[in-house]
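User: Could you go from structure to sequence for me? I need the amino acid at each position, not a summary. Structure tokens:
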């Protein structure tokens, strides 16, 4: 198991331990308190906390299976995706408290999401697929405005945009550049895709997946050899593989 996956599971274990401690504490308090109302409230709290603990334990088991490429049932996929999206802010909050690298957590969140979407075997036509790209993929010295239209790229090969345009032409898919979350949401509204491939850093990808709940999103992490948000790169092979996962065979 990779270190980012271990960190992700560790956060779950910490949450489970906290829930168990609170559960045992409420049960203990219910035995020493004499007032009936408070006693009942504490017992109810104990039962609720144990139920939440069981949900977390099941999710930890499912995440463990997913990151080890093991199959889980359709219901489990639905449950896991909904659960992760809802508790994502809590996971990030606990990670920050534990001083765990939050990007590791986001990375695993993205991986689990990709696995779930891939297993659903969603197939769309090429005109229904949208590739969302971050602006930092473009060479910082490039004069051409590709934010409105990626085909403004002059194919000089100084950045990966050229390869992406080639991929778009090869598979007849649309790619757009978004300079931020708001613009990305606008593109999604305008293009109305049935599936999205988002090239982004861990943070943007995780928030994008959370934003677009109804459309299946698969993420491809960008590479940052020059630091964050500057002349970033993308694994073109991985991007092509992801396009193929979504496209119906002609
Ligand atoms: S490949 Fe396209 S976007 Fe990249 S620097 Fe050259 S012209 Fe600009």
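Assistant: Here is the amino acid at each position, in order:
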């Amino acid at each position: 198991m990779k270190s980012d996956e271990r960190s992700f599971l560790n956060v779950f274990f910490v949450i489970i331990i906290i829930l168990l401690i609170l559960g045992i504490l409420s049960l203990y308090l219910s035995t020493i308190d004499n007032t009936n109302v408070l006693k009942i409230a504490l017992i109810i709290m104990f039962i609720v906390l144990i139920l939440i603990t069981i949900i977390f334990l099941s999710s930890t088991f499912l995440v463990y299976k997913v990151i080890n490429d093991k199959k889980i049932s359709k219901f489990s996929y639905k449950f896991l995706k909904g659960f992760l999206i809802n508790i994502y802010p809590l996971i990030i909050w606990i990670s920050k408290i534990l001083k765990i690298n939050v990007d590791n957590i986001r990375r695993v969140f993205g991986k689990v999401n990709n696995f779930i979407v891939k297993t659903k075997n969603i197939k769309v036509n090429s005109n229904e697929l949208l590739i969302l790209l971050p602006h930092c993929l473009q060479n910082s010295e490039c004069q051409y405005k590709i934010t409105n239209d990626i085909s403004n790229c002059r194919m000089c090969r100084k950045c990966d945009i050229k390869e992406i345009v080639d991929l778009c032409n090869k598979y007849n898919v649309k790619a757009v550049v978004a300079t931020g979350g708001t613009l990305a949401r606008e593109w999604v509204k305008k293009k109305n895709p049935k599936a999205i491939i988002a090239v982004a850093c861990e943070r943007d990808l995780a928030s994008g997946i959370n934003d677009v709940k109804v459309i299946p999103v698969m993420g491809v992490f960008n590479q940052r050899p020059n630091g964050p948000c500057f002349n970033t790169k993308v694994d073109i092979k991985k991007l092509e593989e992801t396009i193929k996962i979504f496209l119906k065979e002609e």
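One structural detail worth keeping in mind: The chain has a mean pLDDT of 91.
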